[in-house]
Write a structure and sequence with these properties.
Elements lengths: L11 H9 L11 E2 L11 H11 L16 H15 L9 E4 L2 H12 L16 E6 L4 H8 L3 E8 L5 E2 L6 H6 E7 L11 H14 L2 E5 L15 H7 L8 E6 H5 L7 E5 L1 H14 L5 H11 L3 H22 L12 E5 L4 H12 L1 E2 L1 E2 L16 E5 L4 H18 L1
Parallel strand pairs: 1-11, 3-4, 3-6, 6-7, 7-8
Antiparallel strand pairs: 2-9, 4-5, 8-9, 10-13, 12-13
Helix pairs in contact: 2-11, 3-11, 4-5, 4-10, 12-14
Length: 408
């Protein structure tokens, strides 16, 4: 058995299940979950139609093995969207690849780029390479690092600076052992967007120490400001890095198009990294179904449904955030569909009591972070995923208000 499996921590939702074990929620309230970031808005009908149409076509439906690199039309759909969204010109043959959702790709990428051999990884005999992760963070980053034979190194976010990562706090000796850096912008759970100056700092560090950057951008199309979030590839091009050296961007249709069950996304960036990632994926057996490819082409080509989806989130957050801000420290994020609220006392006690008394599920912030130097940056915070319909989210917010007032 792979010994690294023993280092994996329970997933946040398993910890939440354990937290609620033995708790009987008040049956007077219907259950409302703000715990899991799973899109609940309706899937656009044209995407479902494209799925059905493709499945009925033979052999382009299900009768043939798909290529790991994807169909030419799919890769062209990626680059067309990148040009429309970011004004970028990428080669569909060498700079993009389809993936089965950003989650599996983020994990697989770590297995591709991390060299855990002591004699060749530049870290010294018996010293594991490092993978730097934001903190709080998406737990896949940690698991991907561990199972690649590396150790995760967590960089805390600063609430006083819109949850920006304190990259200056990372010692030189840590950067020198780093082979991969995970960033998430817009961030999960904070919703913060990295500015150009922060990207420039990371590119300088990447050039100096040679590590790859995996930019998780799955929330990029849900935003609340007038200007869309800056992407990693966009930042690189702006700074004159048109070859996207050591940079890979990961994006997905799940949140953008409300199709989490379709498991469809793509990676884009450094052609040299793409070449090696394709080799890994060829052996890994992670080709996208032709049926999903056809629906993905349709989804990436349409922006009307994305605009409508974004408008629903904007309306929802505009109505829910003021309700919650009357009792907890919370504000509209830059982007994403989470509210990252500060609460009084223990975040786990808050979540457990809220569930018991008002049948509302939220995720304790400490489950989304790791303690470093005695501090867990997620402590005394909760993450609320506003993925359900507006009325349900408003009802949950009103219950939270009642709950907080009852604790005073």
């Amino acid at each position: 058995m792979n010994p690294m499996l023993g280092q994996l921590q329970p997933y946040p939702f398993e910890r939440l299940r354990q937290l609620f074990e033995g708790v009987c929620a008040d049956p007077a309230y219907r259950p409302i979950s703000l715990g899991i970031g799973e899109p609940k808005h309706p899937t656009p009908a044209f995407i479902a139609h494209a799925l059905n149409q493709s499945a009925n076509r033979i052999p382009s439906g299900l009768a043939g093995y798909p290529a790991t690199a994807g169909e030419t039309g799919l890769r062209a759909a990626f680059t067309t969207w990148l040009k429309s969204r970011y004004s970028l010109e990428l080669d569909p043959a060498t700079q993009v690849l389809p993936v089965n959702g950003s989650r599996e790709a983020l994990f697989a990428f770590a297995q591709t780029v991390v060299d855990s051999r002591p004699a060749s990884n530049g870290c010294g005999s018996g010293t594991a390479p490092l993978v730097i992760c934001p903190n709080p963070f998406y737990q896949i980053y940690e698991g991907a690092a561990l199972l690649a034979g590396a150790q995760p190194w967590f960089v805390a976010a600063d609430p006083a600076r819109n949850f920006a990562q304190d990259w200056d706090s990372v010692p030189v000796e840590v950067w020198s052992r780093t082979q991969l850096l995970f960033v998430c912008s817009p961030g999960n759970p904070t919703g913060a967007v990295m500015p150009l100056a922060e990207w420039e700092k990371l590119f300088v560090l990447s050039d100096r120490f040679g590590f790859a950057i995996a930019s998780d951008e799955c929330y990029s199309e849900i935003y609340f400001r007038d200007e869309p979030p800056l992407g990693g590839l966009e930042a690189a091009a702006t700074l004159g890095r048109a070859d996207f050296k050591n940079l890979m961007s990961f994006t997905s249709l799940s949140k953008r198009s409300n199709v989490p069950g379709m498991r469809s996304g793509f990676v884009a960036g450094d052609a040299n990294l793409i070449k090696q990632f394709l080799l890994y994926r060829t052996y890994h057996g992670s080709a996208m179904s032709p049926v999903v490819q056809a629906a993905s082409i349709a989804a990436w080509a349409d922006e009307d449904h994305v605009i409508a989806n974004r408008a629903m989130y904007r309306n929802k957050f505009a109505r829910v955030t003021p309700i919650l801000s009357s009792v907890v420290d919370v504000a509209l994020p830059d982007a994403g569909f989470y509210l990252w609220a500060k609460v009084h006392g223990s975040d786990t006690d808050f979540a457990r009591e809220l569930f018991a008394l008002y049948n509302v599920t939220v995720l304790p912030g400490s489950y989304l972070a790791r303690e470093v130097h005695g501090v867990n940056p997620g402590a005394q915070r909760i993450r609320m995923a506003l993925v359900a319909e507006t009325a349900e989210c408003e009802e949950a917010a009103q219950r939270i208000v009642q709950f907080v007032k009852s604790r005073i």
